[in-house]
Amino acid sequence: MGRPRTAVGTFGEFTYLPAGNGKVKARVRFRDDDGQLRLVQATGDSRKAAERALKLKVSRRDNFSAGSRDLSADSTFGRLVDVWLADLDVVGKLAPSTRSLYERNMRQLVMPAFENYTLREIDVRKVDQFIKKLTAAKSYSTAKQARTVLSLALGLAVRYGALKENPVRGIARMHKPPSETMALTLDQVEAIRAAVRSWRRAPGTPGPPPDGQLEQIIEVMLGTSARIGEVLAIRRCDVDVTVSPATVRICGTIVSPAGKPTYRQPHPKTQKSTRVVSVPSFVAEVIRQRLVLIGHEDPEHLLFFTRNETPLTTNNVRRRLRAVLSDAGIEGVTPHAFRRTVATVLDRASGPDLAAELLGHSSSKITKEHYIEPDEAVDPVTAEILESLAPKRDDGLR
């Protein structure tokens, strides 16, 4: 086999050459994704074996595709994660808190299961089993978060040509377990208020007493439905107590990126949830009290702040609330419980649409599913209507 021989194959005209040690080299010119013709070659023990190896190499397009400098099917999952995170930063559409959450979920939940695989080894079966095991070991919510970041990363691999399809799309549908949104009762709200007001204020308690901000923050959450981060982001210029009722503009949130200082983000959780809220009198009173403290400050000054005039962090407020309520024997109450309570009160009075508007949701579907406590009571008018089915009396009277 001293001279090159040719044959027409699926990918064009193959050329066969001796490769030494009795092996055969097959090669072909292949038009790549960028339109360039590239010479691809493979060896085998025979012409057929060399041709099969060459066809496999061409179909994979791993070593010569234009995207292979970034990712290929033989890239490790860890390499994909690095490229994916870099892509998130380049696009820059995620809030810093969301970006941090995505990376944390990827590294803590997904990476331990897939870091030793190449991309071509990650198939529907592996992903399906991973999600099912995570759901059983952790929770539906945790598994859903893992599925989200895994799908985003593998979707990038598809766009880069390293995978033909996203295996996450083929897994079994996740079934959310039945849950019930629980709002606080008025008695529970009053118990929380009492616990916060009395915390560390008993005679003889060592150390300085609390500064009173926690109870004020709770009142603002109850009167605005705002998230804890949105309440902490309210500035002097966002409130107006000269009108009746007083108003608060919800137009930012407090974020604490990993390894960076806490700061005020100039929009709420979503860009579309900026809103002006008319507040009840008990919230207006809290706002007036805060304005007295910062009346001489810049309009951008926050209503709630640390002793060093820096933003309060949401984690610290949550931690303080847990400590206060734990001392009072009250368990399971988070800042979000106040938001669910507001939604439920509004729904009972005026329906879910008004609740969704106040909470800053794009539709009442989210509000009803996640924030409004189900109402088991049926409209009592049914009793009057069904009187028509009452049995006839013996005396002929109804």
Which keywords apply here?
about 400 residues, Double Stranded RNA Binding Domain, DNA polymerase, domain 1, 3-stranded antiparallel beta sheet, about 45% helix, disordered N terminus, Integrase_SAM-like_N, DNA integration, DNA-binding
What features would you describe in this structure?
The protein is an alpha+beta fold and 398 residues long. The chain folds into 3 domains: 5-69, Double Stranded RNA Binding Domain (2-Layer Sandwich), CATH 3.30.160; 77-170, DNA polymerase, domain 1; 181-201 and 210-398, Orthogonal Bundle (hpI Integrase, Chain A). It is built from 14 helices and 9 strands. A 4-stranded antiparallel beta sheet has the order 1-2-3-4. It has a 3-stranded antiparallel beta sheet with strand order 5-6-9, with no helix packed on it. A hairpin with a 7-residue loop joins strand 7 and strand 8. Helix 7 (213-224) packs parallel to helix 11 (335-350). The longest helix is centred in the middle third of the chain and has 20 residues, at 140-159. The relative contact order is 0.07.
